[in-house]
Amino acid sequence: MSDLRDPAPYDALLLLSFGGPEGPDDVVPFLANVTRGRGIPEERLKEVGKHYFLFGGVSPINAQNRALLEALREDFADHGLELPVYWGNRNWAPYLTDTLREMVTDGHRRIAVLATSAYASYSGCRQYRENLAESLSALEAEGLPVPRVDKLRHYFNHPGFIRPMVDGVLASLADLPEDVRAGAHLAFTTHSIPTASADTSGPAETHGDGGSYVAEHLDVARLITDAVREETGIDHPWQLVYQSRSGAPHIPWLEPDICDHLEALHGDGVPAVVMAPIGFVSDHMEVLYDLDTEATAKAAEIGLPVRRSATVGADPRFAAAVRELLLERAAAEQGRPVTPCALGTLGASHDLCPVGCCPARALKPAAAGADSPF
Ligand SMILES: CC1=C(CCC(=O)O)c2cc3nc(cc4[nH]c(cc5[nH]c(cc1n2)c(C)c5CCC(=O)O)c(CCC(=O)O)c4C)C(CCC(=O)O)=C3C
Ligand SMILES: [Fe+2]
User: Fold this and answer.
1) Which distant-in-sequence residues (6+ apart) come within 8 Å of 113 by Cβ?
2) What is the ipTM of this complex?
3) What are 238's strand-pairing partners?
4) What percent of the chain lies above the pLDDT cut of 90?
C-alpha cells in the first residue's frame, strides 16, 4: 500500500499570494508594483491609494497569509506530513523571487504552489504563472538551480473552501434582525474583470459568455445557497454581482456592481441582504473598503439592512483542503489512481493549464502550464 501522507515528488509547498502594504510609506510603491505596465488610469490609482490610507496604509492580506501559513504548518504537523511551507508574493515583500531563491538555497527542487486565488482568469491564474516564470528566469540568470514548480489546481469547489463560506453566510443571516431574515437576498460578490478576460477564462472549450470565471462563481453560489437551504429550510434568492472595477470606463467589465445591485433590490422591496465575497480567499482591501465601507454606507443611506459574511482566511478546514490538494497531486504525479475531491456540477479543475488557458493580452512566458518553458 502506498503511503497516503507521502508528498513525493514534492519537497516543499509555496504559498503564493498578491501581497499588500503594511504602512503608509508602502502604499504608493505597492500600487506602482501592481500596476507596472497595466494601463490603469492615474485617477483610479489616487482613489485606490485613498482606500489604503483610510486604514493606516495597511492591507489585511499579509496578516491573513501569516495566519494561513501557521494553520498549514499546524495541519501538516498534526497529520504527519513533513513538508516545509514558504510564502512569497507577486507585489510586496516577501517577494516571490526572494522566496524561491531561499527555497533552492535550502535544497528544494520540486515545489508545489498554492495560489491564494481560487478561480480561473488571467488575473487569478495566468498572471501568477507569468510571475513564477519571471522569478525562475531570475534564478537561472543568477546561476542558481531552477526548481520545478507545479501549481495546485483551482479549489473553488473544494468542500474545505465551500463549507467555511456556508458557515459565514449562516452567521450573517443569524445576525440580521429577525423580522427581515427570512426574506434576505444573498449577493455573492467577486472581483469584476473585463468581460473580454472573463470570456476567455479557463481552457479554450469553456471560452464564451463569462467563460470559466463566471461559471465557477455560479457553481459556488449555488453550492452555498443549497447548503444554507438545507440548514435553514429557506430558499434565499441570490445573484452573482461584482465589485472593485477599475480600468478605462469605455471598456466593458462584468456587471452589475454591488452598490447598484443593493439599490435595485431595495427598490424591489427586498428587506435585507447578505453580501458574500466568494471571489476573495481572505480579507483584502477590496473587502474592507468596497464592501465594509462603501457598499455598507450605501445600504445605510437607503435604509437596507446588510451583513458581510466572512472569507475563508485561515480556517482549519481550508488548511486541510490544501493538504488534500497537495497529496492528491502528489499521488497523480506518482502515477497512483486518485479521485479528486470536488463539489458541484463542474468537477475538479485541471492540474495543468492547457495551452490557450486564460490568454494574456500580450504573450509572456508562464510556468506551471502545458506551455511552460521550464
Ligand atoms: C480577479 C482579481 C483578483 C482575485 C484573484 C487574486 O486574488 O489574485 C484580484 C485580487 C487582488 N487585487 C488586489 C489589488 C489590486 N488589483 C488591482 C487591479 C486589478 N485587479 C484585477 C483583478 C483581480 N484582482 C484586475 C482585472 C485589475 C485591473 C488591472 C490589472 O489587470 O492589473 C489594483 C490596481 C488598482 C485598481 O484598479 O484597483 C490593485 C491595487 C489585491 C490586494 C488587495 C489588498 O491589498 O488587500 C488582491 C488580492
Ligand atoms: Fe486586483
Assistant:
1) 13, 14, 16, 132, 149, 150, 151, 152, 368
2) 0.94
3) 186
4) 93
Ligand closest to Cα of 115 equals: 1
Cα(223) to ligand 1 centroid in Å equals: 25
Question: Which cell numbers hold the place of 255?
Answer: 456587471
Question: C-alpha cell of 12?
Answer: 516543499
User: Does the pLDDT value for residue 3 go beyond 70?
Assistant: no
Residue nearest to atom 48 of ligand 1 (CA): 18
Distance CA 16, CA 353 (A): 17
Contact between 256 and 282 under an 8 Å Cβ cutoff? The reply is: no
Question: Is CATH 3.90.79.10 what the domain over 159-308 is classified as, yes or no?
Answer: no
The model's pTM: 0.96
Tell whether ligand 1 has an atom less than 6 A from the beta carbon of residue 321: no
CATH architecture of the region 12-155+314-333: 3-Layer(aba) Sandwich (3.40)
How many whole angstroms separate alpha carbon 320 and alpha carbon 341? 12
Task: Return the H-helix or E-strand segment holding 12.
Answer: strand 12-17
Query: Any idea which ligand is nearest the CA of 190?
Result: 1
Ligand index nearest the alpha carbon of residue 214: 1
Section 314-342 average pLDDT: 96
Q: Which three cell numbers stand for residue 81?
A: 506530513
Q: What are phi and psi of 96, to 5 degrees?
A: -50, -50
For 238, the grid coordinates are 441570490
Whether the CB of 336 sits within 6 Å of ligand 1: no
Q: Where in the chain is the domain with CATH 3.40.50.1400?
A: 12-155+314-333, 159-308
Instruction: Determine the residue type at 264.
Output: A
Count CB-CB contacts under 10 A for residue 361. 11
* Owner of C-alpha cell 494561513: 68
Distance in Å from the first CA to the final CA of the chain: 33
- The radius of gyration of the chain's CA atoms, rounded to the nearest angstrom, is 20
Choose the weakest-confidence range: 29-43, 63-77, 107-121, 142-156: 29-43
Cβ proximity of 111 and 103 under 8 Å: yes
Q: Which residues are annotated as part of the binding site for Fe-coproporphyrin III?
A: 59, 128
For 327-363, give the DSSP string.
Answer: HHHHHHHTT--------SSS-PPPSSBPTTSS--SS-
- Atom 47 (ligand 1): residue with closest C-alpha? 18
pLDDT over threshold 50, residue 210 = yes
